[in-house]
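Record 1 of the preview.
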Amino acid sequence: MAAPGASPQAAASSSSSSSFLGFSANSRDPSQLPSRRVGGRGARNRKKGWKRWRGPEAKLGRDLGDWLEERVSELRHLGGPVSEKPDESLFFVDTSNEQQGQKEQAAKEKPLKIDLILQPDSKVPPPKDILSYQVPNGRKLKRKQRLWEKLAEKGLVPRKERLLQQRLQNPPKANTAGADSGTDPSREFYDIWADSRAGKTRPLACKSLEGNPPRPPPPPPPPAVASLLAQKARELSEKAARLRKQEIFQLKSIRLQLKQREAELQRRKQRREAERKLEAVKPKRLGRLKYEEPDVDVQLSSELAESLRTLRPEGSILKDRFKSLQKRNIIEPRERAKFKRKYRLKYVEKRAFREIT
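->
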């Protein structure tokens, strides 16, 4: 920057080689001439603009004002001149990329919102599962443990432990294969595929029969008991014959009942078929109302005309077609809507009528 009071040529030469660094976007190099529109020379469309800031005094005043503004700006922002400040207070290392990477890493490690929603937010701790700490038959096992400790102090051993030690010290002996045992390898085997006519017999069966002697026959009953038994047998045979005759008679009556039942079922079946055919011809119920046959349109004898030319037609073609559509199940039966008054009529006596009466 040119010093105050320097010549215009020196200021122009120094402007090309100056390296000005401002503190804001609006700061400008004081060595450069301001533009006409900003307020340097002023507008040329007025005479006042030609006379304003044209002399060397005006140039000196502008340089002094710029120099003072620069010093005030340095004092306000840095607390003193820039030339007296160290480099550490004027420059810094840009670590924005590292901070951005740290933020992205923190965002990746942050849990999802759905996981935060599913986490329990209650201040009350969950109850402990008491069953996980309980042991089945815990009290019984503790009592047994205490009993064993007391017996061990006295030098005694529980019964189960004593039996187990005896079994380990005296193991059971293996059974030797004898002549009558089924594990004798030298015994004869029974051939089930051999011919039974060859005179071979089953030794086991013979042995069992020889060991049991025959039972003697029972003694004969006395004559009185024999006569009673014979009479009882005769009565039982007669009773069985009567029951057989009765059953035969019942079979005949049951057969007659079955025939009557079959005839009744056949008659009901025929009646249901007739009703079904009749229902198929009748109009179906499509709505809450049933179909009603219309009245036959005839004229009374007093209403008959003297000649066919003067005879008036009876009935309505539109009503006849409407009933035909209902009978053929094309539309549902309907009835005319009834007029129902929502409010009760109120009778008021007019003043004019009251004056007349």
